[in-house]
Amino acid sequence: MKILKYIRLIISYAILIFMALFSVFPLYYIIMTSLSNAPNLISLDVSDLIPKHIYFAAYKDLLTANYYGGSFPIWIRNSLILASSTAVISILLAMITGYALSRLNIPAKKTLAAFIYIVTFFPYTATAVPLYLMFAKFHMLNYIGLIIAYTPGTSIFAAFLAKLAIDSIPPSYEEIAMVDGLSRFQVFLRIVMRLALPIVALTAILSFSGAYLDFALAYAFLLPHVTNWTATIGLYYAAGLLNPASAPNYNLFAAGSVIMGIPLTALFIVSQRMMTRAYSTLAGVK
What we know:
mainly alpha; disordered C terminus
């Protein structure tokens, strides 16, 4: 029996180690590519996975060079502004809509909730062309138009999740707070938002990453103005991916991917802490 137990334990650890290596290897490969002097994937060899020399030329070029009249740091700044604005607006819309569907007596509330649920199944790419045509007609092919175009995609899905989360919060929490003198809006901010922090964190991650990593819609809205490019557009051109006749600079592309991944990693860590704190501070009515 002990032998079988040890065999199962060894097999379990072997599977876990294999899955961990399988998950980490792409990230490791990108980092090693960014630190190599090989301009394209054909130049890379298996021996480059454990490099003898580390080169920061790709990072230096990316952070200091001028590309088509713009620079990568400016494009990163543009992406952060765009993604942060989208995340904040998406969180507010999702939580307010979810609270209204959960707590307020709205006509045809169940029908509206079902409609929101169905809309979440539509692929994002199916709306790219209609959005472009609509915003072009109103002369809003800019950051404001792009933020407005990004926001519904995440906020609709998050509103449905917010409704489910708020449904699980006992209404007595809010009733007692309003008896103590808080308004409904104060109750929403101090109690509902606090207890629904996991949904807030999830909405922040989805909306920020969606806007931050988007290429197609940003390309359609911002292409004529180089200084307004996002990091995904700028990296596409800087690495030479637009020219099929020449070999792209994949070490430059990998370096840009690593830099772009830093804000996403930071957001994920902060969101994890928010969700942990939310679950640990849940309290009953006193």
